[in-house]
Amino acid sequence: MRSIKTRLITWIVLVLLLTLGITGFVSYESTLGSEERDYTAQKAGLQQRLALSLPHGVWQLDDEFIRLTLDAELKSPIVVAMRVEGDAGLYLGRQRNADGALVYLSRGEQPSGDEVLSLPIIYQQRDNLGTVKVYLSRDRITQRLEHELLRQGMQALLIVVVLSLILILLLRSYVFAPINQLQRALLRAAAPDGQNTPQLPEARFSEFSELIHGVNAIIHTISAELGRRRQAEATALEQKELAEQAYQQLLATQDTLIKTEKLASLGSLVAGVAHEINTPVGITLTAASHLAMTTHQIGSQFSSGQIRKSDLQDYLKDAEESSSLILSNAERAANLIQSFKQVAVDQTSEARREFELGDYLHEIITSLRPKLRRSHIEVQIDCPPELCMDSYPGALSQVVTNLVMNALTHAYDENQQGIISIQASLAAQDAVQLVISDGGKGIAAENMSRIFEPFFTTRRGSGGSGLGLHIVFNIVFKRLGGQINVDSAVGKGTRFTLLLPLCAPENKHEEQA
Fold first, then answer.
1. Phi-psi region of 455 (alpha: psi -120 to 50; beta: other; left: phi over 0)
2. Fewest C-beta atoms under 10 Å: which of 17, 214, 292, 438?
3. Which among 174-183, 206-215, 277-286, 424-433 has the top mean pLDDT?
4. Which spans are transmembrane here (predicted)?
5. Quick check: 29 pLDDT over 70?
6. Whole-angstrom distance between the N-terminal and C-terminal Cα of the chain?
7. 193 versus 431: which is more confidently predicted?
8. What are residue 354's DSSP bridge partners?
9. Residue 457: other Cβ atoms inside 10 A
10. What share of residues in the chain are helix, strand, coil (percent, to 5)?
11. Which residues have a Cβ under 8 Å from the Cβ of 490 and sit 6 or more positions away?
């Protein structure tokens, strides 16, 4: 007889191995592509740097400058050797030996390398002073790929072993142990009297064969009616337990989905701000590298006593431009980081604090700028100055983010221009009215009564979870102690009106999502 446990574990292990194999292959291809792109980028950067730095040293026949330039480039893991050959018998070669030390490369010596770049040395874009040969190695890519294969193999083995052990323990605890207990109980309750009674057919799988033997033993002493009643009671009890378990699982799943939806906005915020900061940081790094290179050049000229007034003037001009670029882009990155830091801290914190509503609304929209930039939607904020609240900024950020992203997703078609308006005003001495509206498609009348229900969405096939407005409803009522209303008509847009106390109530600390 075939064992259910063996068959089940075998199939699950096969599926896991297949899945892990596919994901491992995808990860391997991704790593290979990433390493190739990095290798190409390093090679392109090497060519650009050599085109900028070498011509001056070769033109001046400055062996020390050439040597320093080659040694600087040999610090890259992809470069194993370089040689410069120029007019007037100029030759200089450098290589990195097995110990990592930089040594001279003779003319007849041929270093090992996977690829050789031969680049002309052009001075002031007109004079060809010679060539520089760069010997490149792909050992780093090979090592990274071997490490990735080893990691994927160890990960797959660990996952298969752990899941197999968990599966065996779960089957033993929740399936086979109860079956064995039932079999022993039936045998104890059975009182065979020797009468011939119909026997139940043998089970196909070995786990149920003993159960069938126990049932056959007790059939001799239990009447058909009592058996039917007990069977009915057992079935009803089992269905009740299954229904209770399904209900509890549904509640747990709903709670998990709501928490996942709340954290999704923070993950999107991190990705967007990282992309946004990449540009100013990259410009700052490039300008700093250029400034360092020109400083090194002017220093070499000064040390050799060959510096001219025009060289110094060019250096001062470059230094001024580079410093201006570094300062402006560093300030831009700092502003982005500050906005992201405050919003991210608030979204991951349950603390309350005092904050100015207008400034905080601008910080929230700044954090959403990467997504807004991909659309043609403009967000306008109208908030009186010095309107302060003592509330939960993280909860308010979640509400505003969900409402703005809801309008961005549902109100307008792709590439359609539109405006999302955020208006704040003092509704009373102790309350603020926050209105978030758009001029988009609007909401159908039959859906108005259901928009705050969990899992209700009109964009199920396009990634909508139906939890965004449900989370907004719960946060506004149970955390911020406010009210929310919606007005909408098809083709005339949607208007969400929030009435929030300036000082959030203390007794509503727990948010029931």
1. left
2. 292
3. 424-433
4. 156-177
5. yes
6. 50
7. 431
8. 390
9. 22
10. 60, 20, 20
11. 441, 442, 443, 444, 445
pLDDT at 497 over 80: yes
194 falls in which pLDDT band (50, 70, 90)?
very low
How many percent of the chain have pLDDT more than 90? 11
Q: How far is CA 280 from CA 123, 333, 343, 366, 375, in A?
A: 31, 6, 20, 16, 22
CA pair distance 433, 501, nearest whole angstrom: 9
Could you tell me the strand order of the sheet in which 102-104 lies? 102-104, 91-96, 79-86, 127-136, 115-123
Residue holding tokens 């040969």?
133
Nearest CA-CA partner of 3 in 180, 216, 208: 208
Closest Cα to residue 343, out of 287, 304, 399?
Answer: 399
Assess contact for 365 and 340: CB atoms under 8 A. no
What is the structure's pLDDT at 42?
86
**Tokens, residue 114:** 């996977």
* 0.70 surpassed by pTM: no
Q: Report how far residue 488's alpha carbon sits from residue 254's, in angstroms, rounded to the nearest whole number.
A: 28
pLDDT of 115 > 90? The answer is: no
CA dist 328 and 334 (Å) reads 10
C-alpha closest to that of 66 among 16, 116, 121, 17:
121
Name every residue whose Cβ is closer than 8 Å to that of residue 440 and which is 6 or more positions away in sequence: 407, 410, 411, 412, 418, 493, 494
Residue type, 240: K
Q: What is the sign, positive or negative, of the torsion defined by CA atoms of 54, 56, 57, 58? A: positive
Q: Is the pLDDT of residue 98 over 90?
A: no
- Res. 50: pLDDT tops 90: no
For 462, residues 6+ apart whose C-beta sits below 8 A from its C-beta are 409
Residue 193's pLDDT is 47
Contact status, residue 322 vs residue 290, Cβ threshold 8 Å: yes
3-state secondary structure of 30: helix
What's the token pair of residue 198?
């119909």
Instruction: Annotate 275-309 with DSSP letters as a single string.
Output: HHHHHHHHHHHHHHHHHHHHHHHHHHHHHHT---H
Tally Cβ neighbours within 10 Å of residue 76: 18
In whole angstroms, what is the distance from residue 492 CA to residue 439 CA?
Answer: 6
- Euclidean distance between CA atoms 27 and 34, whole angstroms: 10
Which DSSP letter does residue 188 get?
Answer: H
Alpha carbon distance 502, 389 (integer Å): 5
